Amino acid sequence: MLNFGIIGCGNISSKHIHIASNMLDNQINLRGLCDLDRSKFIKQKSNFNLEEVYFFEEYKDMINELKLDIVSILTPSGSHYKIANEIISETNCTVIIEKPICLRYEDAIAFNELTKKNKNKVYVLMQNRFNKPIVALKNLIASEALGDIHLCTARVRWTRDKDYYSSASWRGTWSNDGGALINQGIHFLDLMTWLNGDIKNVSGMATNAIANIEAEDTLTAIFNFENGSLGTFEVSTATRPKDIEGSLSILGSDGSVEIGGFACNKLIYSNFRNSKILFSDQEHTNPADNKFYPHYIFYKNVINDLVVNKKQTFSFPQEGTKCIEVAHAIYDSVVTKEHKSIDGSYINSKLGQ
């Protein structure tokens, strides 16, 4: 059984604690929780059966004393690089990083160098890749069922109200959180590049429609992909009064697909020139009885890598780095009002500094 620990006991940790303590029997053993605020640990301990889970203020102490095999970093995004850097450099622990991998592009590049020099496996948690309709779409694209793709579109229309942004001082700040793009939208940007390939250049516009925060709450962008297709991207946390969708559409010469729901977890539409091509009934949506399904499958795959494959097979740091570079290019375009190429030139970006 693999020993597991969590760094950061905020809201998102509940999902990870539930999966580790209730859904991965005899595969993973939740041993420790780490946070600067002990009251958050006490709250989580009261919500779950954590009798043999220990509290730490220092994550390196937790890893070393409990002999952890895996640790998940669930702290504010601006702290990801510092924490992961120390763990990767000083321990052999496998590292899981909640989205985004970091805020600064130069830190993302440094992650890649660290993983070349050290033996740690480092996973970026882009769980929407494991949604059943997304997996099916990935396979259909690989089989060329859609023909030549000419348009890829993502829409994130969510609600994050005043209470959300005021719940922690770091929310919506450039140094620790970022805006709607790099926080909420990063998952959908990842899906666009994972399904449709690398982005060549971008143009963006952004605004603070409602939220009183440093970063943006609403952003739009257009893309040119390396495969010649166009892309449109829309993300907003200013949807009122409630969430609408987190969706993705791909149009090709031989077929079209739209996947929606809250986070690309439900097939909305599919039609193919070849009438024999269909999404199976099991591929239409995630299991109704498992609201943690994509996170659960992510963890199952990590465990399989460690126990069976003995090597990392997915969610590499360089994949998360692609999204950070594109995000910085979009922000650069917002500021300069110019079209921007994805050319590795965002080392000195102001975001996250």
Radius of gyration, whole Å: 20 Å
Question: Which strands sit side by side, in order, in the main sheet?
Answer: 13-12-11-7-10-9-8-14
Low-confidence parts: none
Beta fraction = 15-25%
Describe this structure in words.
This protein has an eight-stranded mixed beta sheet with strand order 13-12-11-7-10-9-8-14. A six-stranded parallel beta sheet has the order 3-2-1-4-5-6, sandwiched between helices. The mean pLDDT is 95. It is built from ten helices and 14 strands. The protein folds into two domains: 147 residues, NAD(P)-binding Rossmann-like Domain (Rossmann fold), CATH 3.40.50.720; 174 residues, Dihydrodipicolinate Reductase, domain 2 (2-Layer Sandwich), CATH 3.30.360.10. Helix content is 33%, strand content 24%. The chain has 353 residues and is α/β, with parallel strands linked by helices. Helix 5 links the parallel strand 5 and strand 6. Helix 8 packs across helix 10. The radius of gyration is 20 Å and the shape is globular.
List keywords for this structure.
single chain, 353 residues, alpha/beta, Rossmann fold, Dihydrodipicolinate Reductase, domain 2, 2 domains, 8-stranded mixed β-sheet, 6-stranded parallel β-sheet, 14 strands, globular
